[in-house]
Design a protein that fits this description.
- This protein is of the alpha/beta class and 284 residues long.
- Strands 1, 2, 3, 4, 5, 6, 7 and 8 form an 8-stranded parallel sheet that branches.
- The chain is globular and about 50 Å long.
- The two termini are 29 Å apart.
- α5 packs across α6, α6 packs parallel to α7 and α8 packs across α9.
- It has one domain: TIM Barrel.
- The chain has 9 helices and 8 strands.
- The chain binds zinc ion.
Length: 284
């Protein structure tokens, strides 16, 4: 399988730690605050710029969230099937409070998925498994184990074409619908409430097609970059740091050697529990 990385979508909603100008009126503190704002603002712009370099689809820059501020993202196209699910990209938890949503992509894989299921079970953790249709078809036993353990399914397409946002709508529809059918067939018709475009390569059309089949487009906030194998410690540290941005974490159980991801989960899951995070699911 082709190696890939999934670029982090930009999100215009400032994270909670982002400084607000005018919070304090003391001149010295205000100067400090302004300076801090400028420095952090520059850092944020640099990050956004770096993210922009990685972006392939303009949509991800302009319509990234399910917030009410992005109405254009949710206007259905009357020439396509009507959505029966929310067609905006989900990144927030369905539960209130301090939560984390684990999302695990590119499996199921006979070498790694059973071990990921094991570490999740030992930590009472739940996850969304974004499966490639052919992998589910090849390993229906694993796909069924995922469902039986209480995790949720996500259609991650057939071919993992990270450039599918540049292809015609008929191609995108076939990738989405065939992937869904393969996952459903493998699991005996278990619900598939999410669709995640390969590499986050969503289009308005692909989101509507997914939503017309009952699947909410699924994004992420935290890109651990585990696919690039930066080391388990680095994966853990990235997750801990970026959870301030949002709750939905991107990890992988397929597409190559996932030993680092597994080792990272062994560290991260107990840390999440010790630090008061509850395991939730992304909004449907
Ligand atoms: Zn993927």
């Amino acid at each position: 399988m082709r190696e890939h990385h999934e670029p982090k979508p930009s999100d215009p909603t400032p994270p909670s730690w982002y400084p607000r100008v005018g919070v304090t009126s003391h001149p010295a503190r205000r100067r400090t605050a302004v300076l801090r704002t400028a420095v952090l603002g520059a850092a944020a712009l640099t990050l956004l710029g770096a993210a922009g370099v990685l972006m392939k689809a303009p949509e991800r820059l302009t319509q990234p969230t399910g917030s009410p501020a992005a109405p254009a993202a949710t206007a259905p196209d009357p020439t396509l099937p009507a959505p029966v699910a929310d067609m905006s990209i989900s990144r927030q938890s369905e539960d209130p409070g301090k939560t984390v949503n684990l999302t695990i992509d590119d499996g199921p894989d006979p070498q790694w998925t059973p071990r990921v299921l094991d570490v999740l079970a030992r930590n009472d953790a739940k996850a969304v498994f974004c499966m490639l249709g052919p992998n589910a078809q090849a390993h229906p036993d694993l796909a069924r184990q995922v469902v039986a353990a209480g995790h949720r399914l996500c259609d991650h397409s057939v071919s993992h074409d990270t450039a599918m946002d540049h292809k015609d709508v008929a191609y995108q529809e076939k990738e989405i619908v065939d992937g869904l059918t393969m996952v459903q067939d493998a699991t005996g018709g278990a619900p598939v409430p999410y669709y995640r475009a390969p590499g986050g390569a969503f289009t308005p059309e692909s989101r509507q097609i997914a939503a017309a089949h009952g699947m909410r487009p699924l994004g992420w906030n935290v890109d651990t970059r585990d696919f690039e194998r930066p080391g388990a410690d680095r994966i853990v540290e990235t997750a801990k740091a970026q959870l301030r941005i949002g709750p939905t974490v991107l990890l992988h159980d397929g597409g190559g050697n996932r030993a680092q991801t597994l080792a990272a989960l062994e560290q991260l899951l107990p840390w999440l529990k010790d630090n008061g995070y509850a395991f939730s699911f992304p909004q449907q």
